[in-house]
């Protein structure tokens, strides 16, 4: 299937969007589009219809309107799609678990394709990341090694689409992953990543899927433990704010303020 045929399938029967995207596809990020009047004449469409389609592409971050300077090509960036997806999550019933499930499906496919291709350079980068996990107990370095490993895995797949959507979901999940204490379970972390690496290197497809599943089971445990800790801390904080039975809350607050004032230099 050609790129034009794929675009037609995605856009359906919207020839204006198709024509506009074909024009943009031949440009580079930073290139300026022709004026609205000129572009509408060249595409044979009304300025109103063109403005509508261009507005949608601007909302996706593909185009950027710079006041009187005109409209410029930015290109489709993972971070832009991540922002849209994050807003979608906030406005819908989708949960973090559902996004993790999608990421798991992408990871399984990427690992299978990596095993079939055996890109030596990318697999070597995976090995370097695992070695970094073995050499450090620092949480930040472990997190960086984890990111490097999975980036190299998607590179090893050789699939631009898998790489793109992995970057989109990585940025959506970044805040959650950053809050996890990877250093608390270093042994399991090292094992699950080394198992993925070995399965890809050996081109053992069943072992690849098993290793990916074990990785996400470990991640699920970390997320659940983190949530349990958050709930426990929240409950503890609420208990500290409780006043003794029969006490006057205003008196207690005033007493706290007075004590603070006395301690102030």
Question: What labels describe this entry?
Answer:
mainly alpha, 265 residues, 75% helix, 12 helices
**What class would the helix/strand composition place it in?**
mainly alpha
Radius of gyration: 26 Å
Strands, total number: 2
- The separation of the N and C termini measures 75 Å
Describe, in plain words, how this protein is organized in 3D.
The longest helix is centred in the last third of the chain and has 37 residues, at 205-241. The termini are far apart. The radius of gyration is 26 Å and the shape is globular. With 265 residues, it is an all-alpha fold. Strand 1 and strand 2 form a beta hairpin. It contains 12 helices and 2 strands. The chain has helices at 3-11, 15-25, 36-43, 47-59, 78-90, 96-117, 120-135, 139-157, 160-179, 186-202, 205-241, 249-263; strands at residues 63-65, 71-73. It has a two-stranded antiparallel ribbon with strand order 1-2. The model is unreliable at 5-11 and 249-265 (pLDDT under 50).
Short overview:
With 265 residues, this protein is mainly α. It contains twelve helices and two strands, in the order ααααββαααααααα.
Topology summary:
Elements lengths: L2 H9 L3 H11 L10 H8 L3 H13 L3 E3 L5 E3 L4 H13 L5 H22 L2 H16 L3 H19 L2 H20 L6 H17 L2 H37 L7 H15 L2
Antiparallel strand pairs: 1-2
Helix pairs in contact: 1-2, 5-9, 6-8, 6-9, 6-10, 6-11, 7-8, 7-10, 8-9, 10-11
